[in-house]
Amino acid sequence: MTELAEPKRARGRPKKTEGERDDGNRRQALISAAAQLFHLKGYDATSTREIAAQVGMQAGSPFYHFGNKQDLLLAVMVEGMKQAIERQRAACAAQGKDLSAREQLRTLIRNQFDVLLGPDSDFIPVMLYEWRSLNDAQRQTITRIKDDYEAAWTPVLQALHDTGQLQAPVGLARLMIFGALNWSVQWYEAPSTTSPSSPTRRATLDELTESALQLFLPDRAAAAAT
Amino acid sequence: MTELAEPKRARGRPKKTEGERDDGNRRQALISAAAQLFHLKGYDATSTREIAAQVGMQAGSPFYHFGNKQDLLLAVMVEGMKQAIERQRAACAAQGKDLSAREQLRTLIRNQFDVLLGPDSDFIPVMLYEWRSLNDAQRQTITRIKDDYEAAWTPVLQALHDTGQLQAPVGLARLMIFGALNWSVQWYEAPSTTSPSSPTRRATLDELTESALQLFLPDRAAAAAT
DNA sequence: CCTACCGATCGGTAGG
DNA sequence: CCTACCGATCGGTAGG
């Protein structure tokens, strides 16, 4: 199952074209493999040997790139957050500034589902569910980055609160909304390779976004019609 | 920190009053200790030796009560769900049948916060976050019990949907609401023993309930006033 | 980055 | 439920 992910190598260690440093390349491969395995089996249940094997290394080699297993976990989370922040920035920038707060929230939610469930979505779930395995210093590092990510949500929620569209306290609302979205990692079904068209097709990320928006910001007109 | 939880014992093994079988007692003690440690450190990071030590047993003794570590994990989850279902049944029964769907949802949410964050709240978080460590047969067992627990929510949400108070599809709404509530395990601060009155007092479970209700079922009158 | 290796820990068992 | 124990695995290291 992992053969495709392995770099091709002609027996033994990969001969690198001389003069070219691809340290970053191998390091990245370790981070990606770790993200995949940590997501699938959990941090504690994944051995550094498995990670090494997945990228075609020997048992001790990951420790040439990372001081210890915990540092590798941190690298997975940092990498994931960097991607998430960049995607969020791009998504918000792409829609201009004069949209309604409701539309801005839609964009943020849609991006969050993408980060959680879309392609290359192993990193953030690891961050969400392996927090416990970090040490204090590492937690501080991640907290700083996460605060940066979440900062984009506060003004939008505040605006909705000011207009009465969102009645719950902004701080708690943010936590509960993140909970509702993040929890999807637990139940959203990965696209199954078996059963080409399953009887109950799973919702698309757009449908999830729409439902979340309906849940948190019900449509006034539709509600009044009752 | 765990001394208080340990049964008092006068050196060595506890001398049981003769004729009295307290197998259930020791078994329960193991389940409680396991719940505590699994919640605090995670399943994989908790050794059966630690659990044994916490109840004053020797390293191999837990395996007199449980075939293996996984079975102990299952027992923690089953015990937690039994308690949760019983509490939910009692909470719903205590309020009669002719309350509005909104009030019924309030009761369900309040009970869920209690199960997640109140006293003896180690069991359900373990169930929520250690699902991965179960085998297939065990997952089926828990799924059945969990379906039973969640069944109480569906008619309430359906009623709210029928009246237009809840616009999102009932199934997705249930998943997202559970997510919003369950996620609180990650951020809700345990009562700190230090700092007698912290500057930003943490919300009470009643306040959390009210905010959640505001988030999912905003008050019509308040919204219309804007 | 590989080879060869080590100390520690862990789940679990036999036999009482 | 304790005593005594084992096989397996794991994170990590020295030395090249």
Keywords:
homodimer; 226 residues; mainly alpha; Tetracycline Repressor, domain 2; 12 helices; 62% helix; elongated; disordered N terminus; DNA-binding
Question: Any overview of this molecule?
Answer:
Chains A, B: Pfam families: TetR_C_24, TetR_N. Chains A, B: This is TetR family transcriptional regulator. Chains A, B: Residues 47-66 bind DNA. Two copies of one chain form a homodimer. The first copy, chain A, has 226 residues and is an all-alpha fold. Chain A has a domain at 76-188 and 203-218: Orthogonal Bundle (Tetracycline Repressor, domain 2), CATH 1.10.357.10. The first copy, chain A, has twelve helices and no strands. Chain A has helices at residues 23-41, 48-54, 62-65, 69-93, 101-117, 123-129, 136-151, 153-162, 170-182, 184-187, 205-216, 220-224. In chain A, α4 runs antiparallel to α5 (101-117), α4 (69-93) packs across α6 (123-129) and α4 (69-93) packs parallel to α7 (136-151). Residues 1-21 of chain A have low confidence and may be disordered. The interface between A and B is large, with 44 and 44 residues. Chain A binds a DNA duplex (16 and 16 nucleotides) through residues 12-14, 26, 47-49, 57-61, 63-65, 67-69.
Secondary-structure map with pairings?
Two copies of one chain form a homodimer.
Chain A: H1 23-41, H2 48-54, H3 62-65, H4 69-93, H5 101-117, H6 123-129, H7 136-151, H8 153-162, H9 170-182, H10 184-187, H11 205-216, H12 220-224
Chain A binds a DNA duplex (16 and 16 nucleotides) through helix 3.
